[in-house]
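Same chain as my last thread, 339 residues:
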Amino acid sequence: MDRDTEQRITAGDVARRAGVSTSTVSKALSGNGVVRTETRLRVLEAAKELHYRPPLREGESDGTKARTIGVITNDRFGRLTVPVLLGAFEALAQHEVALLLCDGRGDRIREQYFVEMFQRRRIDGILVAGSGAFPRPALHVEGSIPTVYALAWSVSDHDMSFVPHDAGGAAAIAEHLLATGRRRIAYIAGPQRDTASQVRLAEVRRVLGENALELSHEPLFGQWSEAWGRQATTQLIHSGAPFDGIACASDQIARGALEVLRENEIRVPESVGVTGFDNWDVMVEASRPPLTTVDLSLHDVGVAAGLAILHAMKGEPNVAKGIHRIDCQLVPRESTAMS
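reply #2:
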């Protein structure tokens, strides 16, 4: 399609192609308003097929706009994403940087549409906030717009990514359980395919191995849920394997484990020490006893990502490309307290 034809494409053309109203096209492409997921995807596909580019708003120009960053998040209200974004916004607000927030919802087509919109508006940088600590495909960004990833990391070595140091947090948990006298430690993980499950398990095993120990039971893989914590702990008890510590890969799992131990009159922390991971206040404060866990330092992850993109868009990068891990913090509570 030539440039003149592309310029003649209107929102009405997209609406007819997608079988919706022009107002629905506006809502779907801007991310504002309520639009069903399947409708939004249909509009995005139609816009892509027609090479449609929405007109700039009144007061905007095609000239370079200084100090503007486009933010793509895949989980606007997620408990992990929010503190990351708050940290990034805090770092950027001190330098009077304008932010354009878009909800990618984990959809590659939608994300790429926003990238193209950012490029058209000539923003200075792109910040991608993931919904969890796992690898993700790199965005296709033309030109030299600095792009920084937070929480979920880019698989491209050419990008800068900032993530919690999961391995360090898991090591701290294992060392803490050993320091409180536990020697027969079991491990309850999330899904076996998840990077977080594997990284945390590997580090717990490494620390135990350095102390001439091994897990008291084969690792149990399941879901990131209280229900799985209850099921896995029941299975552990019925296995007959001796254990005096349970390292759980999340706070949700740990809370479920605590419930089953209490129901079976197994005292925590006197007989068994239990740890979680994430420091999710809703979980750790409601647990009985309060849960020892690892804080992911998500605010710090966001601050580091914000400062990195700020320096990069000034042409003065303060860190190298690749994955940068932010230290996690052990938060001891009553679930592992020594008698």
